[in-house]
Specification:
Helices cover 39% and strands 21% of the residues. It is an alpha+beta fold and 436 residues long. Bound molecules: histidyl-adenosine monophosphate. Histidyl-adenosine monophosphate binds at residues 90-92, 121, 123, 128-130, 133, 135, 137, 139, 267-268, 288-293, 311-315, 317-318.
């Protein structure tokens, strides 16, 4: 019986025959994750890791019962103790649960956390949409001033700049306070009600329970109807309006191009005040590279103090796919510095000892264990892109002289067996220094 991978998931492997799937190559993921970590640390965020599953109720309360995520997309199961658990569909609720549970607010701030984690959503799989995707997420807790919102937007844009991504659109909006949203919901319902029958089936379903999400509809007929719909920005309370104006002024001051999209509401119910999304014109229907916003008060909902918070999440799959579309060069996979090819039993043992010594000296090294002919070992060294290849047989053991063959230049240098490790150490140090 041959098993296949579950629908909507994918493997991240060191080899990928299909060019269109090269975004799945593991060294591309390693590179992206290393840039993410550097950016996160540059902005003062520390890593947080939470379990892959949580109590289902956590997401129901935070993300909202009427949201698509909770109503249709959660991977929920009962454990053997009869508890309802859910594979996390998003990271914000998990971070806030940990923050409140561990009373982290009692420690000195700033409370700025980041994560790179898999998320699980039972969605219809399509290009750019998976049932297991990976998010880089950031959450800053405790600061209500608009600089914190702008720091978040700047941070994700800085990540995209460092990765070389271009042609991105940054959209911002404010969804105001819970009260101003209630008033707006009513106004939107009053506007849409006479045209309810003309809305798409999806939007008709959303009318009662989640009317704001109709604004997100991709249906052309819905979009036409929405052209004259009331805008949430006209319903904002004074505090949210002032906050949003300052966010926009700060974004202008730091030279970050953005557009105000009054129809941007996002699919998770916990947002208030600022929301934002970054899209790429080179992705298809699912073009959001990242999004986030403010969610003041979630700590209180989870039984902690009432604290402001703001964050974002960005999908690693979509970032990598956009990088491929933009023909951005990735660093090459890590290669051995030395590849050892033994000839004969005595040389095998010698090479194995040398291999271990090299690695104990932090020098990336490989050896042909197969016992095949030298030609095979040389091919392996080439295909792994090794810097040096060293063939050792009885002759080398008897004369105590070996040749280091630099594969890129096809040049050779001789060295004594007794000083092989020292020679390679010096050469490795010079090599790493030059690469810096
Ligand atoms: P979200 O907009 O649901 O927000 O997801 C964030 C990002 O994850 C999206 O912009 C997209 O890049 C990626 N993404 C989402 N679903 C999928 C999927 N099925 N397949 C591939 N990529 C996907 C959140 O999850 C919030 N927790 C973000 C946040 C953090 N807000 C405040 N703090």
């Amino acid at each position: 019986m041959k098993y296949s991978i579950p629908k909507g998931t994918f493997d991240i492997l060191p080899h990928e025959p299909k060019e269109e799937d090269w975004w799945r190559l593991s060294h591309h993921w390693e590179y992206l994750e290393s840039v993410i970590r550097t950016v996160a640390h540059d902005f003062g965020f520390s890593e947080i890791r939470t379990p892959i599953f949580e109590r289902s109720e956590l997401f129901v309360r935070a993300v909202g019962e009427a949201s698509d995520i909770v109503s249709k997309e959660m991977y929920t199961f009962e454990d053997r103790g009869g508890r309802s658990l859910t594979l996390r569909p998003e990271g914000t609720a998990c971070v806030m649960r940990a923050f409140v549970e561990k009373n982290l607010h009692q420690l000195g701030g700033p409370h700025k956390y980041f994560y790179i984690s898999p998320m699980f959503r039972y969605e219809r799989p399509q290009a750019g949409r998976y049932r297991q995707h990976h998010q880089f997420g950031c959450e800053a807790i405790g600061i209500k001033s608009p600089e914190q919102d702008v720091e978040m937007i700047e941070m994700v844009c800085e990540l995209f700049r460092r990765l070389g991504l271009k042609d991105l659109t940054v959209m911002v909006n404010s969804v105001g306070s819970a009260d101003s949203r209630d008033t707006y919901r009513e106004a939107l319902r009053t506007f849409l009600e006479p045209q309810l029958a003309s809305l798409s089936k999806d939007s008709q379903h959303r009318f009662e329970k989640n009317v704001l999400r109709i604004l997100d509809s991709k249906d052309e007929g819905d979009q036409k109807i929405l052209e004259n719909a009331p805008l949430i920005t006209d319903f904002l309370d004074e505090e949210s309006k002032e906050h949003f104006d300052t966010v926009c002024t700060l974004l202008e001051k730091i030279g970050l191009n953005f557009i105000i999209n009054p129809k941007l509401v996002r699919g998770l119910d916990y947002y208030n005040k600022t929301v934002f999304e970054i899209t790429s014109s080179s992705l298809g229907a699912h073009n959001a590279l990242g999004g986030g916003g403010r969610y003041d008060g979630m700590t209180k909902l989870f039984g902690g103090p009432d604290l402001p918070a703001v964050g974002f999440g960005s999908g690693l799959e979509r970032i990598l796919q956009t990088m491929m579309k933009h023909d951005i060069a990735f660093p090459l996979p890590k290669a051995p510095f030395v590849y050892l090819v033994p000839m004969g039993d005595a040389a095998h043992t010698f090479c194995f000892e040398t291999l271990c010594q090299l690695r104990r000296n932090h020098i990336p090294a490989e050896m042909d264990f197969s016992g095949k002919k030298v030609k095979y070992g040389l091919q392996q060294a080439d295909s792994l892109n090794a810097h040096y290849c060293v063939v050792i047989g009885d002759d080398e053991l008897n004369t105590s002289i070996v040749k280091l063959k630099a594969l890129a230049t096809r040049t050779e240098e001789e060295t004594s067996l007794s000083t092989l490790i020292e020679t390679l150490k010096r050469s490795w140090n010079a090599h790493t220094l030059a690469a810096r």
